[in-house]
Amino acid sequence: MLSQKSANIKSSPVRELLKYTKKPEFISLAGGIPATDMLDVDGIDTIIQDILAIDHRQMFQYSVTEGEAELRTEITKFNLHFDLHTPENNILITNGSQQAIDLLSRVFLEKGDKVLVERPTYLAALQLFSYTDAEIEEVSYQNNAIDLEALRSVLADGQVKMLYLIPNFANPTGHTLDYQTREQIVKLVHEYHVIVVEDDPYGYLRFEGEMVPSLYAIAQSMYGNNHNICYMSSFSKIFAPGLRLGWLAAPDKFLSAIVVAKQALDLHTSTFNQHIAAKYLASGRLMERLSLLQTTYKHRRDLLINALKKHLGDKLSYNTPSGGMFLWCHINLDINATDLLAACIEEKVIFVPGEVFFAKHPDKKSLRLSYSMLTNENADEAAIRIAKAIEKLQ
């Protein structure tokens, strides 16, 4: 009874691993989720009580598809702190940034098109693109950076419709595109009329180094509103993932079609949740908490790296990210990550094997470790358990 597409697309291995996170004896380095202990429950509760203290019945009514004006205005103000100009009339509120990817796929991709992704890239984006009739191709990398000459060659064949990028602290690699690469990408996609989906849920979580302007901002400075960059972000990593709130900024020439697609899907995002986010932003609490999040994640990154050095030595290699939540690792032994995960489950520690993040020809010795939930108490123990699992396989 299932369609051929649905029958062929498997559940996310990350979601499958979540059952272990409910077991207190397990240490999870798997989920790309914000630290539960960092959620501002008291602040959110205060906002909700303030809302309910007033007879705001409209907050429980239907809303406009574009999203509540108050929230779009607050997002515009918030982004100015990061040198990102997103006029409220160019913003669409979505059910997380995942829905934004879905909407853009529906609006732009059709049979015969090619969508380019980084190698490796966000698993859920690969799942979503698999539901389209477009062909998924991987962008070539050289010396840990996008090969711009190879990118030009691929774009020049005229078959590429969309380029999907996570420019800041990417999931799963933690890699960030430098300014020169971003600038060249903006020029190339403009020359070859390719749409860029700039997915940026982690950009607010930079804890080292200088901020790099978004492709969206670079394109605005070069081409005004006549560019091909659709920028999206989310409140999931910095505020409250359970509210399922994200947003998309697109140039005028694209926005109306994207809004119509959302109308067809779900009419609009939760009115009440939008008001919670709008009032939280207006209160200034999110800007205040960002520095705390950044400091905490830097500490947890360092905890993980120090534990890996201490207990695994050169058995794993990795780059050190300057923000975000992820450490991308390579196993320097004759062991693949899937077998290692099975052994780690026996030791009650979990991670995500890297092969699931590749569209083609997966690297079976890669793995993603998330440090967002790590603590002072369990960092060493997590590394010790991984080391024990490796010993079993040698």
TrEMBL record:
Transmembrane helix recorded as keyword: no
Q: Name one Pfam family in it.
A: Aminotran_1_2
In terms of superkingdom, the source organism counts as Bacteria
Q: Which residues cross the membrane?
A: none
User: What do we know about how this protein assembles, alone or with others?
Assistant: Homodimer.
Spell out the protein name for this chain: DNA-binding transcriptional regulator, MocR family, contains an aminotransferase domain
- Per UniProt, residues of the Aminotransferase class I/classII large domain are 49-386
